[in-house]
Amino acid sequence: MIRRNFLLTLAGVAGAAAVPLVAWPVKAPGVLKKSREQWRALLSPKRYAVLFEEDTEPPFSSPLNHEKHAGTFVCAACNLPLFDSKHKYDSGTGWPSFWQPLPDAVATKKDFKLIWPRTEYHCARCGGHQGHVFDDGPPPTGLRYCNNGLALNFVPEGDALPELRS
Fold first, then answer.
1. Cis status, amide bond into 81, omega within 30 of 0
2. CATH number where 8 lies
3. What is the pTM of this model?
4. 146 is catalytic
5. If we measure between CA atoms, which residue out of 63, 66, 78 comes closest to residue 32?
6. What distance in Å separates the CA atoms of residue 127 and residue 98, rounded to the nearest whole number?
7. pLDDT tens string 124-159
8. What's the total number of domains in the chain?
9. 75, 78, 126, 146: which is the annotated catalytic residue?
10. How far apart, in whole angstroms, are the C-alpha atoms of residue 126 and residue 80?
11. Distance (Å, rounded) from C-alpha 123 to C-alpha 151?
């Protein structure tokens, strides 16, 4: 009986990993739809791989990991503001980390790529992959939004935010 339950559980996990992940609900107004070819033409190959192929950059490779100025972190694909610099902290993981996104800026879905489920988050406007959220962050939320630096641009406080890409 134990073996049967283990095999059923394993089959369920394997089945979940094989099911294509469907689109997640998007709350942000002005949802941006572009083809993969259009995004590829607008972004560097590395940014495209992170944002639209859900790649991960190497840890400690992003200059944004050390960004400490006041400002706003925006999606590198569509320029939607995602994080306020006041919510950034040094998680020691090697990726820019935040304890809270801006309202309606990100959408989440389950990710089974490493067998056990993780919560993946994307830009709520263009669907660009940003990273994963974990429950080991600081107060007040206890969350860690672990972001790929290539998926973000930083706009210093006082500078105009870039226009949303159409």
1. no
2. 2.170.150.20
3. 0.80
4. yes
5. 78
6. 19
7. 999 999 999 999 999 999 999 999 999 999 999 999
8. 1
9. 146
10. 9
11. 9
